[in-house]
Description:
Elements: H1 3-33, H2 35-38, E1 43-46, E2 58-61, H3 85-95, H4 116-125, H5 130-143, H6 150-162, H7 166-182, H8 189-195, H9 205-216, H10 220-233, H11 239-251, H12 255-268, H13 274-286, H14 293-302, H15 309-321, H16 325-337, H17 344-356, H18 360-372, H19 379-391, H20 395-407, H21 414-427, H22 430-442, H23 449-461, H24 465-477, H25 484-496, H26 500-512, H27 519-531, H28 535-547, H29 554-566, H30 570-584, H31 589-602, H32 605-618, H33 624-640
Amino acid sequence: xxxxxxxxxxxxxxxxxxxxxxxxxxxxxxxxxxxxxxxxxxxxxxxxxxxxxxxxxxxxxxxxxxxxxxxxxxxxxxxxxxxxxxxxxxxxxxxxxxxxxxxxxxxxxxxxxxxxxxxxxxxxxxxxxxxxxxxxxxxxxxxxxxxxxxxxxxxxxxxxxxxxxxxxxxxxxxxxxxxxxxxxxxxxxxxxxxxxxxxxxxxxxxxxxxxxxxxxxxxxxxxxxxxxxxxxxxxxxxxxxxxxxxxxxxxxxxxxxxxxxxxxxxxxxxxxxxxxxxxxxxxxxxxxxxxxxxxxxxxxxxxxxxxxxxxxxxxxxxxxxxxxxxxxxxxxxxxxxxxxxxxxxxxxxxxxxxxxxxxxxxxxxxxxxxxxxxxxxxxxxxxxxxxxxxxxxxxxxxxxxxxxxxxxxxxxxxxxxxxxxxxxxxxxxxxxxxxxxxxxxxxxxxxxxxxxxxxxxxxxxxxxxxxxxxxxxxxxxxxxxxxxxxxxxxxxxxxxxxxxxxxxxxxxxxxxxxxxxxxxxxxxxxxxxxxxxxxxxxxxxxxxxxxxxxxxxxxxxxxxxxxxxxxxxxxxxxxxxxxxxxxxxxxxxxxxxxxxxxxxxxxxxxxxxxxxxxxxxxxxxxxxxxxxxxxxxxxxxxxxxxxxxx
Length: 646
């Protein structure tokens, strides 16, 4: 071969190589832009009848070879051929111990070819290696930012559950439920799981996990429907899934469906456990059907389950709540006969029940019996008895129990303090109440902001604002911040005592704490200053409230007009009414009549008529009382020689 032939052959090879590279780039760009055209659609085919599915169920089958194929790819090295994408990923997973390196330069350029079909094919190839399958799934979802479809989720969930990776499977199952809820066309997760069973290994426990996942996500109704589909499919749900669904229905108060599950439980073949019967005991109590208790307990024993402590405590609690103490104590005696020893909860329930119906003496006897049986009372037990004594107004006995608590090393809690304070307040024993609060603080018992609030408001309602001020100081010392309601009640009570200076001081404290006073606070303050004939301070408060975005109302207008008229400062009263009518469209007829009456007593007829004319033009419409004051004014002016009519 001569030199010209070699040169020609070399040029041909170079041009061919360049052409192949250009075609590869053009094809890749075309494939990425129009991939939705090139991807084949899923084919739908009826499933064959098996022990776990019916012929009505349809399966989505993904063909094995669904990659975009370009003949030119065959000219590329194997590691750069997109047709080998699935093989390359599976090989990488095997070689890298279930880890995929995004920095792999060998096949980095084919990553854009990873689509939802390729994801599913890789997952199907990795069923025997769940760690690899999960690593690949997370890599696609988190690193590549591709959201797998429902089919891919179903494959990975089946793979994990088949391999007994229940925690990971439950996590992805919850994600699949969330994915189905967010889709524009909602996904039936149950049908998707059933459809994918033809393509991969699976375990029926996945359907039990589906029910639990729905309950966990708060979708109780969907979980119930999934349970019904599982039964219709021929599977027997596990008792744990059954209990989970039953608990969800019970919390939502779906009592009817709980009883439907109870009747179906025996037909399906679910073997209940003690937890199942205890939950149905709760159903009995919520159904207000305690008369069926004995029948239900007998059914439990027929099935080989002996009612345990939880069962009896549930029933006793329900009887005590319905004030059926005879039935509660009957069960209490039955417990000993059946070898079930009552615990602290049992005795506390009986204590509460007796105190609820006013049998505090009997409750104290049960309390002592509980101690004799070796149970050390806790704060809940003491609170039950203390509350009973407080309800009867026996505060001395309540206080004795508090000292007994503290002597036993049990610190009273917030509920203890609350019931004691409320008991003393109901009995009207304020001095003892204040001493009790001080005593509790000495023992290191924290007084909550709620108790301070209750005490301050109660003292204000009893018209004892100065004692309330002391409690407010104690509240601040304990690190609690009073709210607007506390300040409002305190300022109102101080204003009722005409202590305007103290009321104004607490209003200013509100502003320092960035708490804007309400309209009611300004009403009380302005009325108080007007009663004290301090109209200038009242007007300053009006200007301040306007600054904070509050508008004067009829009560403020009346207080100021009455105060000005009382001082015989009629010009300012008139000016105030004109200003309020002009700026705030406030037309208070009561204030107008007060002003007319004052003018009729101190002015002549001419001034009176001019006032009426001016007010009428502003928008004040006189009523019968206005006319009465006008007539009286004219008569008084005539008697005093103030006619001056032109």
